[in-house]
Specification:
- This protein has about 375 residues and is an alpha+beta fold.
- It has 2 domains: about 120 residues, Phosphorylase Kinase, domain 1; about 230 residues, Aminoglycoside 3'-phosphotransferase, Chain: A, domain 2, CATH 3.90.1200.
- Helices cover about 45% and strands about 15% of the residues.
- The chain has a 5-stranded antiparallel beta sheet with strand order 1-2-3-5-4. A 3-stranded antiparallel beta sheet has the order 6-8-9, covered by helices on one side.
- Strand 4 and strand 5 form a beta hairpin.
- Helix 4 runs parallel beside helix 9, helix 8 runs antiparallel to helix 9 and helix 8 packs across helix 10.
- The termini are far apart.
Length: about 375
């Protein structure tokens, strides 16, 4: 399908015809006759542009999708710079090419995932508009959190202890890697700007831990990188989760594979519970939710991971996630109203989780 379109303006009916013919979705005599682009909504896709493509076909075409979702590089320079630094476009494309096909967790159908150079990429996916998209501003309910953890446990169990071969070298380890170094450096460089951008929601005791936090950060990363490791999604937040509304739907599915790493699966759990789950739900049910995750792993054949191990790893994961908070709040463009809204809730929930779980003692 190369050369790839450089922007959605370059997406043509002819090019999409070739994509769908190669996929086997339509026959070699069928044609896409018209493409209409439709915005998904404000604040969707901080690192990428995301749109819906509504398709019309030549006469007689049946069982072909009436719409697709397209992802392409963001035109926001600040966000794109962060994306390139963390190789998020390459990682997402390879995830859709190599991880998603092996992952028993529910996923939208992939029609194309390809990249040229560092950042010219196109991903075409099944349109999940008839699902209910999670809302990180509102926050995950108990039921949503339960469904998400049970689903991601399928992914973690599938790759549990199996990611040390050369086939996974493109995916960085959680510690002692370029990704770990960039997370450390990015969070350190962004700390003060994040404090300023979200000063109303960051208490004094968080501001005072800066030196202790960064002194401990390599150890937190190392703890979350102890074997057995698995494929960590890396951006397992509510805005990336879709919940089924119809009997034929998956109960939940997720996408946005821009930050996969090799580490402990509990990283995804801590990310979701400390930044997306409603604080009152997390504080009342986190032990129950961690047990649910452990049981879900066991159902998939992972029987050597106890609740006590998971609970301590969870606390470390919650403390570590402040690194992500510092990086995001101080480096991504906060001018987008929807983006700033979910970042605000992320800050408030992570502060609450750190306090409730007494995570400062880990420093």
């Amino acid at each position: 399908m190369r050369p790839l379109p450089k922007s959605p303006d370059d997406i043509t009916a002819g090019w999409l015809t070739k994509v769908l013919q190669q996929k086997g979705t339509i026959s070699n005599s069928d044609q896409v006759t018209q493409v209409i682009r439709k915005s998904i909504g404000e604040g969707v896709g901080m690192m990428s542009g995301v749109e819906i493509l509504e398709l019309s076909y030549s006469e007689g075409v049946s069982n072909a999708p009436s719409s697709l979702v397209i992802k392409y590089p963001t035109d926001n320079e600040a966000n794109r710079e962060i994306a390139n630094e963390f190789h998020v476009y390459k990682r997402e494309v390879r995830s859709f090419q190599e991880i998603v096909p092996q992952n028993p967790a529910a996923s939208p159908e992939v029609y194309l995932a390809d990249i040229e150079g560092d950042s010219d990429f196109i991903i075409l996916l099944e349109d999940l508009s008839d699902y209910r998209l999670g809302d990180q501003v509102t926050g995950a309910t108990l039921e949503e959190s339960q469904l998400a953890l049970q689903e991601v446990a399928k992914q973690h169990a599938t790759f549990w202890g199996k990611v040390l071969s050369d086939d996974f070298d493109w995916m960085p380890r959680f510690s002692n890697s370029w990704n770990a170094t960039s997370m450390f450096g990015g969070a350190l460089a962004s700390w003060e700007a994040g404090i300023e951008n979200f000063s109303d929601h960051i208490p004094q005791w968080i501001r005072e831990i800066k030196d202790d936090f960064f002194a401990a950060l390599p150890s937190l990363q190392a703890h979350l990188d102890e074997d057995p490791v698995t494929v960590v999604h890396g951006d397992f937040r509510l805005d990336n989760l879709f919940f089924g509304k119809e009997p034929h739907h998956h109960k939940v599915t997720y996408l946005d594979w821009q930050g996969p790493v090799r580490g402990k699966g509990i990283v995804d759990v801590a990310f979701l519970l400390s930044q997306s789950t409603q604080s009152e739900v997390r504080s009342a049910h986190d032990r129950e939710l961690i047990q649910l995750y452990v049981d879900a792993l066991s159902d998939q054949g992972v029987n050597d991971y106890t609740f006590d191990q998971a609970w301590e790893d969870y606390r470390v994961g919650v403390m570590y996630q402040w690194c992500f908070v510092a990086l995001v709040t101080g480096s991504l463009d906060p001018s987008n109203a929807r983006g700033k809204a979910w970042m605000t809730e992320m800050v408030k929930r992570n502060v609450s989780a750190i306090e409730d779980l007494n995570c400062l003692e880990l420093l």
